[in-house]
Amino acid sequence: MRGFSPRNLKYMRAFAAAWPEREIVQRTVAQIPWRSNLALLHKLDLPETRIWYARKAIEQGWSREILELQIRARLYERQGGAVTNFPRTMPPPDSDLATQAFKDPYLFDFLGTAKPRTERELEQGLVDHIQRFLLEMGAGFSFVGRQVLLEVGDSDFRVDLLFYHLQLRRYVVVELKAVPFSPSFVGQMNLYLSAVDDLMRHPDDAPTIGLLLCKGKDRMVVEYALRDLAKPLGVADWETRLVEVLPNDLKGTMPTIEEIEAELSDADERT
Description:
By secondary structure, the chain is of the alpha/beta class.
């Protein structure tokens, strides 16, 4: 064969060195585009991490751009990181899938550098960027609605965001908090899960799952709060900092949002 440039030959040699096992090449990396393979070689060092992202790209149909976005966002490290009670409240196949479906933290960098001050501002920002929000939520999540009304007795309650997970075959209630986790949130979510099960769940659907997205948490407090809860519930952080998804070699050179805000504040005072 002829016509290969020195760069092409370099890439081919790197590819062969990275994947010496023919079976892995045929079953996995050969199923994704060449440019996606180059992204795996350039941006990841460990074989097990590369193969994980390659399999996710196949499962979820990621383009090279989406693959690179997920690598920058450290999806591998965040996947399955939420604090949950799923192993105790769900059967093994579903609990394993649900655990992997939830991550920690959730990165809402697409909201920009301005911090949402209230749950409603956060909710509005996520709905305004619903495509990016669904990408961050992961495969299988289908958006049902926001501020979904639940009529319980003589009272009305509204769920911040309601999803349906196509593989788990169950509703997922997402509650947004602009403050750190409080055990009182669990009681509120327990009511929502029970109400969705009674008012909306089809007989063929599995029981509803809850996800609390908070601005920080004490992991031990969360574990105690979930210990005796009968409903399946996960708790994770959310972040908007763009610096969180920068490459490691650039993180130390970029100012934080707090540093930028402090600098702007000092400039205002001087003027």
